[in-house]
Fold this sequence. Notes:
Elements: E1 2-6, E2 19-24, H1 27-39, E3 43-49, E4 52-68, E5 74-90, E6 100-105, H2 114-131, H3 146-149, H4 157-165, H5 169-199
Helix pairs in contact: 2-5
Amino acid sequence: MQKFLPIFPLNLVAFPGEQLNLHIFEPRYKQLISECSKENKTFGIPVVDNNQMLDHGTEMELIKIHKVYPNDEMDIQVRGLQVFRLLEVVREIPDKLYAGAIISLLPNVEDKHSRLALELEELTVELFSLLDVREQMEKPDFAFKSFRLGHYVGFDLKDEYELLRHVRETERQKLIVEHIKRILPSVKQVSDMRERAKLNGQYRMVNPPDFL
């Protein structure tokens, strides 16, 4: 499906289902968000890397304007809806300060592979335990889904963007599984060093060798 979207390019990846808090200060984006609020329309966040707008991004909806400052700057909350691919950037729109784009919405194929899903869950639990961030899994909306995990497994921007581009859940899960397997040895090493550092200066009961 093709459609036109106002765009708000940012140096980040917004995943479908993710909520973002943003501070809006540029005049063009103050205009954009004001129109989204009044007209109940969506906008797109294309990913920017090295000052270059990439081909994929996420359609966003405005959830709430939390605060409007005297200079019309805003604190807002938005939510990701669906991944899109840029077809054509429209840099000048009559009476608008912001740019837009013709985009193609991409499907999100929620296919399943039980063995892969189990491996993803086991590796994620191990990684979160080593990083001491198990509380993430206690959140009500937590799920072992790729877009939910994308910001928590140590991806850089390029990795997150690659995750965004894949339309099948199993493909995205494979990317995360392969990534966690690559980084686990290093994470374990750092975790072991942290545990040893905790023992410094503490009283320890150590069994002496039997040959003396």
